[in-house]
Amino acid sequence: MTKKEIITIGITMGDPSGIGPEIILKSFENTGICDNRIIVVGDYNIMSAVHKILKIKSFNLVRITSVNKCNFNRNTLNILDLQLVDLKNLLPGKVQAASGHAAFGCIRKAVELAQNKEIDAIVTAPLNKEALHLAGYKYAGHTEILAYLSDTKDYAMLLHDKKLSVIHVSTHISLLEAISGLRRERIEKVIELANESMKKLSGAKPRIAVAGINPHAGENGLFGNEEIKEIAPAVKNMREKSFNVEGPLPPDTVFLQAVNGKYDIVVAMYHDQGHIPLKLLGFNSGVNVTAGLPFIRTSVDHGTAFEIAWQGLADENSMVEAIKLSIKLSQ
């Protein structure tokens, strides 16, 4: 397959009260990023204010009103100005409905650009769920918004780091719901999404491990029967379809086995089961990928960090990795 030579990446500004604008600007100072075709989907006045706080001299910001107005070079970062924020009323580091509204507007515009093939991938800076809800958008997070806006029914959150990759059967629901709602059909779909995603990342047939949901993967029914009723039948069915998958495996050891090279990705049954090991190993380097969307989406694997917002203290490494991965997946 011939690699695509010209790739355009759209980065959403995220919640303007948080660290999103800062980590985007710091990322563009990275030599591995600034030579790419980057568009920030957000608010020019916000980005300009943070640009001044950071005292960046290596590149200037340019306000654009459409993608075809972009001038791509390492000395210029294009800001698609949606004029969503009144800078005078913005409270950095605070939860605000106005910031939630702006964050949602950036995502909506980025999805439109991706669907119209004006950009090849979306990279998202963090949003704040409380601000999002105050603005009237009752979504659990980015993943659910993107799925809704693109009319996607089968999707999953995948966290990727050089040491470990994890994909989730369930994410932003209670632990009780994650257990009671566990179904083999969903597990099979997530195994399929894991296979598709890791083939793009590694180019080889992925080795997939499926974690159990109970201690010791249920110990043959001693500690629960979810493995017997739902997980094992799903794994068996996918193996019969020639997927390279094993499980259910004890959750307390399967992630270590993956880190040691036995597996390429672990299917986690619920949010914290997958997030805890990934964030322990790669908090500042992990990347969030939404598998199953009709376009590529990557994101930082952390939140808005209001406590350090607009102070020049935020670490941009996860954003750098998210942009690099979006380029790799777009090729």
Describe this structure in words.
The chain has 331 residues and is α/β, with parallel strands linked by helices. It has two domains: 191 residues, Isopropylmalate Dehydrogenase (3-Layer(aba) Sandwich); 135 residues, 3-Layer(aba) Sandwich (Isopropylmalate Dehydrogenase), CATH 3.40.718. The chain contains twelve helices and twelve strands. Strands 3-4-2-1-5-12-11-6-7-10-8-9 form a twelve-stranded mixed β-sheet, sandwiched between helices. A hairpin with a 4-residue loop joins strand 6 and strand 7. The radius of gyration is 20 Å and the shape is globular. The protein starts with 7 loop residues before the first strand and ends with a helix. The relative contact order is 0.17. The model has no long low-confidence stretch (mean pLDDT 94).
